[in-house]
Design a protein that fits this description.
Helices cover 79% and strands 0% of the residues. It is an all-alpha fold. It has one domain: MFS general substrate transporter like domains (Growth Hormone, Chain: A, Up-down Bundle). It is globular and about 55 Å long. The N and C termini lie far apart (59 Å). The mean pLDDT is 84. It is found in: Cell membrane.
């Protein structure tokens, strides 16, 4: 699955150059939501495989799309922003296995963990849709371009 996600990262950059990156991100979160949902119900092996591959593919595509979006919102701080995004991606690969293991230890089932993963994808989908259609994405540009606040400006 990691190979699939890794292979799709450059492909997703190409897709993000040709299509709207925010619409691609919406599709990524929709696929994660729908892919993780059946995993919570301990499906047959073929359905489990499809769900895992869909999550891996959308995760790889999402990685490339995010790195396409970062410079458009943080043009002056693209290096620093990419560093923070990479760090968060590392944490995203670190915590889910720990959370799934902890949930399995407590409940002897992965159902709650996969349901939480699905609902996290749904929450991210809703946020991206809200930001996109309510014009909130331009706020980052205003914050970056505004002059810094100084404590002694009132004097």
């Amino acid at each position: 699955m990691d190979m699939l996600a890794t292979f799709l990262r450059p492909v997703s950059g190409l897709l993000a150059d040709r299509l709207s990156a925010t619409y691609l991100l919406m599709a990524v979160f929709l696929i994660i939501t729908l892919g993780a949902l059946p995993l919570a119900f301990e499906p047959a092996l073929w359905l489990f495989t499809i769900g895992c591959l869909a999550i891996a593919a959308s995760g790889g595509i999402g990685n490339g799309v995010i790195f396409k979006l970062v410079p458009s919102f943080f043009s002056k701080q693209a290096g620093m922003a990419n560093g923070v995004v990479s760090m968060m991606g590392g944490l995203g690969g670190f915590f889910p296995p720990i959370v799934l293991t902890s949930i399995f230890t407590l409940t002897e089932s992965y159902a709650i963990g996969f349901m939480a993963f699905s609902q996290t994808g749904l929450a991210c989908l809703i946020l991206v849709i809200w930001f996109h259609f309510h014009g909130k994405l331009h706020l980052s540009r205003e914050v970056i371009d505004s002059p810094p606040y100084r404590c002694n400006d009132h004097e």
